[in-house]
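During the no-cost extension, the postdoctoral fellow (Dr. R.K.) reprocessed legacy sequence entries with the updated structure-token encoder. One reprocessed record is reproduced below for audit purposes.
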Amino acid sequence: MSARPDTPLLNRVHKPEDLKQFSDAELTQLAHELRAETVSAVSETGGHLGAGLGVVELTVALHAVFDTPRDKLIWDVGHQCYPHKILTGRRDRIRTLRMKDGLSGFTKRSESVFDPFGAAHSSTSISAALGFAVARDLGGTCDGGLGDAIAVIGDGSISAGMAYEAMNNAGHLNRRLFVVLNDNEMSIAPPVGAMSSYLSRLYAGEPYQELKAAAKGAVSLLPEPFREGAKRAKEMLKGMTLGGTLFEELGFSYVGPIDGHDMNQLLPVLRTMHDRATGPVLLHIVTQKGKGYGPAENARDKGHATAKFDVLTGEQKKSPSNAPSYTSVFGQTLTDLAAEDDKIVAVTAAMPDGTGLNLFAERYPSRCFDVAIAEQHGVTFCAALAAGGMKPFCTMYSTFLQRGYDQVVHDVAIQRLPVRFAIDRAGLVGADGATHAGSFDIAYMANLPGMVVMAAADEAELKHMVATAAAHDDGPIAFRYPRGEGVGVDMPETGEILEIGKGRMIQQGQRVALLSFGTRLEEVKKAADALAARGITPTIADARFAKPLDQALIMDLAQNHEALITIEEGAIGGFGSHVAQLLAENAVFDTGLKFRSMVLPDIFIDQSSPADMYATAAMNAEHIEAKVLDTLGIAQIGSKSA
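Re-encoded structure tokens follow.
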């Protein structure tokens, strides 16, 4: 383990008000120490590194100028909040980041009064800050009090529609509110779109950056030296396209862009804004993701997310892989299919690498679209691509697709358009916790008329389902698969087109049938092995489809076994509920079938390893075994206590 950094000033900080004792020069030194401590901590835990390193100076400056927790500091997404956590009384726990019972990798209300609003999805911060500002003005009360509201949002996150909706409303309400636009030219993927180009143009003419702000009416907010030339600046720059136009049209006073790593710029500008603002103000800072740590600065993603690593070299300590990841199987299969079919296109929302589309994008750049952090737009874009005769694969994490659900219903399902939904990160995902769990997609997709819903039991099945989706033109189709490695099965050369609504038998047995949907199938097999030692041989089937159900298979299992148990990696209301409805409508329960459904519990499960999270959910092999024994009324002698 690397030696801990020397942090004499940081050692004196136990809460943000301790920053008030430091001079500006000491605050600059404190930022260096905070950066070193952040790198040291993440080297031991893994996590989101680059974003935090990019806002170290900003974090120090905001806590030095504002009065948290009375002033509500809201970090958009929360990827960048590790330095904030260190300064807000959590340094002693920072090396528990993203671990079971440890600190969350995002802001979390239940963790600290200094996290006034939880976040792990993007583009919510301005809406939240405006809510706090209005609550303050209406006499609301909350932990820590209510003062100013400050949203820190990145150039990637501000590309999402929700951020514009919030800014439009904030400009209309004209409440005192601060938005810091952290412009590092890098969200998770390089930012795309016109907004990114606009921000780039704003600071392309560096010599005029201060004059731009002055010329566009933010004069009273600028430090004294900048104000003198304001009139002259307006004359000089008249007729030019000036910085801040868009934001000022939305009702914000615009300041910037300024260097977000220069405390000599940050501190005076923030103090001036703090002292003089009356309505909404946007401060545009330019930063570098991964700043101050060479391996992160030099990485293509600027050290966005990292495993544990060696501080000196930056080399990550990843476990060797025994099987391909589900994500890579999807990406490779889709790329192979696209070689045979020029109508296949892929759409993702700021996650080309995370969804495995990087290979597709390299091979077929004109047919791969990163729509930025805009899932609603992405889904409707896919709907029209389908209406236009293309075969779009809408490739999003389960938890992010939730943001485009109205579009799934209104623009895709009602119109029966053949959009292919590739739903990554299905089930419980580990260290990112409840905010990133793919718990609800089975339920929210399978209740839509005409939607086909599949789940891959292993990586070979995923290959078949990608091929099946590509060939399916009769309405929308979705397939889900988890994070992480496959189970090591033999991979077919090409994907097989599955018969829609047809499951498969895995093994024949008696008394109890286990009907699995998705990757719990491996745990079902382990449970069956343990049950065999007790003289019980269950029948095992892989449903493959939650919609349409394989009615013949399910009715056969029900009629030839005394018990039927469904197992799925999703919340109540999904596959098991559809099976129960089928059995009820066919009067199967009238004749005494014992039916059980194993689903995720009705709680949000906190971060841990996926195996431990599934233990919390009671969905591992030993839990399946116990469920069988309990359902059959067989006593478990010497069974583990719950």
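The longest helix spans residues 24-45. The CA atoms of residues 183 and 279 lie 22 Å apart. The remaining legacy entries will be reprocessed before the final report is submitted.
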